[in-house]
Amino acid sequence: MARHSFISRSRIVALVALLAIGAVVQSCDSRGTDEVGPYETFSPNTQVSYPMLQHFALSSCMGCHSNFSDPNVIAGLIDPSNPDDSTLLQKVEDGEMPKGGPPLSENQIAMIRAYISQQQEIKIEPTWSSLKIVLINRSCITCHSQGAVKPKKPYMDTYEEVANNGVADDMAEKMQLGKMPPKGHAPPSSEILKAFIDWDMAGAPQN
Ligand code: HEC
Ligand code: HEC
Predict the structure, then answer these.
(1) pTM summary value
(2) How far is the CA of 73 from the centre of ligand 1 (A)?
(3) What distances in angstroms separate CA 22 from CA 16, 18, 28, 39, 65, one per listed residue?
(4) Do the beta carbons of residue 131 and residue 139 sit within 8 Å?
(5) Contact (Cβ atoms closer than 8 angstroms) between residue 5 and residue 147
(6) CA of 184, closest atom in ligand 2
(7) What's the pLDDT at 37?
(8) Per-residue pLDDT of the chain (207 residues; tens, 9 = 90+)
(9) Ligand 2 centre from 137 Cα, in Å?
(10) Which atom of ligand 2 is nearest to the CA of 170?
(11) Residue 186: nearest ligand to its CA?
(12) Which ligand is nearest to the CA of 144?
């Protein structure tokens, strides 16, 4: 898959084929987090990862707000228990941001809203589906993703990348030693770290 692209070639081919036969393209919410298509087809039930948000909804902000590449900066601008109270959402809804540029589309705003509300719903559990969001998407993926501004291996976009080749063991070790995430990036809470270690010790199941 090419860097900076979340849409695999096969999906583009499939999409073109669907359009060709005049089918209605439905939302992508039954697909995996990393396979979500362009925001034109965004459905509020789709899980929004941080790279998705950055790529599809916040790309026009980066020229002025380069610190938006850090999910912790965004975390300070949102209130998951009340998305409408979030500065991030208010600024784009009232058209104040992006400053001097065209307003965001309805779908981009819907993606921001979905991202905000999803930040509270995730229980911390020793499962892949929980850890992908509470640990990897929040603390690691800004660097360890093929879609990152400066992609760093090991990539952690998919279950296979994390579960195979001892990557999960390496992740647990680096976090326990306090070496990852690097200095200046907020480490995961001890509760999240414990859940990850429990999951890794259980053989890193796809649960
Ligand atoms: C041309 C530069 C520019 C662009 C592009 C831009 N902003 Fe801003 N933004 C600013 C400036 C300057 C401020 C601070 C002064 C102000 O509020 O006008 C600001 C302030 C903000 C704040 C308030 C920050 C706080 O701490 O209260 C938010 C939230 C914000 N911008 C979101 C966005 C989003 C989201 C986008 C993209 C959709 C975006 N901005 C695009 C220049 C920009
Ligand atoms: C700000 C960017 C950044 C973030 C965030 C980040 N890493 Fe890294 N990571 C790096 C860089 C750069 C390297 C390669 C250089 C090094 O090992 O220090 C690396 C290397 C690694 C390695 C491989 C080390 C090896 O020996 O090959 C692992 C495992 C790792 N990171 C785990 C994590 C985990 C787990 C998280 C989230 C909790 C995380 N990283 C967050 C930048 C980052």
Answers:
(1) 0.55
(2) 13
(3) 10, 6, 17, 20, 41
(4) no
(5) yes
(6) 1
(7) 43
(8) 444 444 444 444 444 333 333 333 333 333 333 333 445 567 777 888 888 899 999 999 999 999 898 887 898 889 888 899 899 999 999 999 999 999 999 999 999 999 999 887 778 999 998 999 889 987 898 889 887 778 999 999 899 999 999 999 999 999 999 999 998 887 888 999 999 999 999 999 999
(9) 13
(10) 29
(11) 2
(12) 2
What is the phi/psi pair of residue 94, to 5°? -85, 5
Spatial distance between the Cα atoms of 131 and 196, rounded to a whole number of angstroms: 7
- The residue length of the chain stands at 207
The pLDDT score that the predictor gives to residue 6 is 46
Helix/strand/coil for 54: helix
Residue 84 CA to ligand 1 centre (angstroms): 17
- Do residues 107 and 127 make contact, with C-beta atoms less than 8 angstroms apart? no
Q: 22: CA distance to ligand 2 center in Å?
A: 45
Query: Residue 14 has which token pair?
Result: 């499939």
Q: What angle do CA 20, 25, 29 make, to 5 degrees?
A: 145
